[in-house]
């Protein structure tokens, strides 16, 4: 069974990596040799490769922390090997500082969905939900919570709901209510990098709303792995103590740090362009479904807030994934990747990410590609 699964994964990777037309590079595109060549090439433009490798977080890792704090406009930043670790540490530290182990967050937030109850199992924190609606919580909902909470954690954007963002006034109002209730505010900003166009604000102004911010380096920026916490110098110093306790003080992390620096140089300036293009891609996908005679399609949100969004179609997930693989193998076109069941029979959804490769397509080409893809769904 394991061998069969690995064969399926390898076939999909080969198809999508080998495609000549795609909307994004993909998170694991390329062989080991290709990724090493890319790291050497792009790393040389981002950092002096004649320098020594890092040891327990100095040199290139320290430079990444400096650049991250500078980009977000915070006093300091600390590199973490994973975002899961970074957020658990941040929320644990705030619980100690506020003397309140209750965290208010959305039930669709990453710690609630993907971390196996780590907040309660490892840190003893408990979570309350301001809302069950598939959107960001309103300020009135945060105000209406019936018990005290020490930290309000907001995921920007809310991935599971379609990479949704509030508008700027909604966000500032929600943050203000948390302050009124004597709570601190933490931004789960794994994809914060791509939020600036929607808010019409720079990253420092966005980050300034929160007491701490988590950002990812492999989401949006295309790094190998890794994350950072950003905030006041005093708070970040405390988080590095817990980073060590959690096993995050790795001996060498230079490949991840180097790729993150390259991503800050290469991808960050282009994210507004990707966000604008995603809006056009969403319209082209919708037009393609109509041209193919598909009676129902849902794009969430209708106008993407970032350069990522969800597409829902009335087909079986396995059939859609197989059609995506066959399309890439037979035509070299990779519009979609993995499709997932939506909890209802015969309906599935996928995430669409628009990056540099997606800029080369005309909307007419995307529409035609959708028609061809749907003709292969069995």
* Backbone CA Rg: 21 Å
- CATH-assigned homologous superfamily of the largest domain: Type I PLP-dependent aspartate aminotransferase-like (Major domain)
Query: What's the tally of helices?
Result: 15
Q: CATH first level of the largest domain: which class?
A: Alpha Beta
Give the helix/strand class. alpha/beta
Write a compact overview of the structure shown.
With 378 residues, this protein is an alpha/beta fold. Helices cover 46% and strands 14% of the residues.
Keywords:
2 domains, Aspartate Aminotransferase, domain 1, 378 residues, 4-stranded antiparallel sheet, Aspartate Aminotransferase, domain 2, 7-stranded mixed sheet, 13 strands, 46% helix, 15 helices, alpha/beta
Describe the structure.
The chain has 378 residues and is an alpha/beta fold. It folds into 2 domains: 2-26 and 270-375, Aspartate Aminotransferase, domain 1, CATH 3.90.1150; 35-266, Type I PLP-dependent aspartate aminotransferase-like (Major domain) (Aspartate Aminotransferase, domain 2). Helix content is 46%, strand content 14%. The protein is globular and about 60 Å long. Belongs to the threonine aldolase family. InterPro entries: ArAA_b-elim_lyase/Thr_aldolase, PyrdxlP-dep_Trfase, PyrdxlP-dep_Trfase_major, PyrdxlP-dep_Trfase_small.
């Amino acid at each position: 069974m394991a061998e069969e699964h690995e064969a399926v994964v390898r076939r999909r990777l080969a198809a999508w990596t080998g495609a000549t037309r795609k909307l994004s590079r993909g998170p694991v595109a390329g062989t080991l040799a290709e990724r090493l060549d890319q790291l050497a090439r792009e790393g040389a433009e981002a950092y002096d490769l004649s320098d020594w490798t890092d040891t327990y977080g100095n040199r290139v890792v320290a430079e990444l922390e400096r650049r991250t704090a500078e980009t977000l406009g915070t006093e300091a930043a600390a590199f973490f090997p994973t975002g899961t670790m970074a957020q658990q540490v941040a929320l644990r530290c705030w619980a100690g500082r506020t003397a309140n182990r209750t965290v208010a967050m959305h039930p669709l937030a990453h710690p609630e969905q993907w971390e196996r109850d780590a907040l309660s199992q490892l840190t003893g924190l408990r979570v309350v939900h301001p809302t069950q609606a598939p959107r960001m919580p309103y300020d009135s909902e945060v105000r209406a919570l019936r018990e005290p909470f020490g930290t309000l954690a907001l995921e920007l954007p809310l991935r599971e709901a379609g990479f949704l963002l509030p508008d700027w006034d909604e966000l500032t109002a929600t943050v203000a209510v948390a302050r009124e209730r004597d709570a601190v505010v933490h931004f789960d900003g794994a994809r914060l990098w791509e939020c600036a166009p929607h808010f019409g604000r720079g990253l420092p102004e966005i980050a300034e709303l929160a007491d701490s911010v988590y950002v990812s380096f492999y989401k949006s920026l295309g790094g190998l792995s890794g994350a950072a916490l950003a905030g006041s110098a005093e708070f970040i110093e405390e988080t590095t103590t817990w980073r060590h306790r959690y096993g995050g003080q790795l001996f060498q992390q230079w490949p991840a740090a180097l790729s993150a620096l390259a991503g800050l140089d290469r991808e960050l300036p282009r994210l507004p362009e990707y966000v604008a293009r995603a809006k056009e891609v969403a319209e082209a996908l919708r037009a393609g479904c109509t041209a193919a005679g598909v009676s129902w399609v849902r794009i969430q949100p209708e106008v993407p807030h970032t350069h990522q969004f969800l597409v829902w179609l009335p087909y079986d997930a396995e059939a859609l994934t197989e059609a995506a693989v066959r399309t890439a193998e037979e035509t070299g076109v990779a519009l979609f990747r993995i499709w997932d069941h939506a909890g209802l029979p015969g309906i599935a959804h996928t995430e669409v990410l628009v990056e540099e490769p997606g800029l080369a397509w005309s909307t007419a080409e995307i529409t035609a590609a959708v028609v061809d893809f749907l003709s292969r769904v069995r």
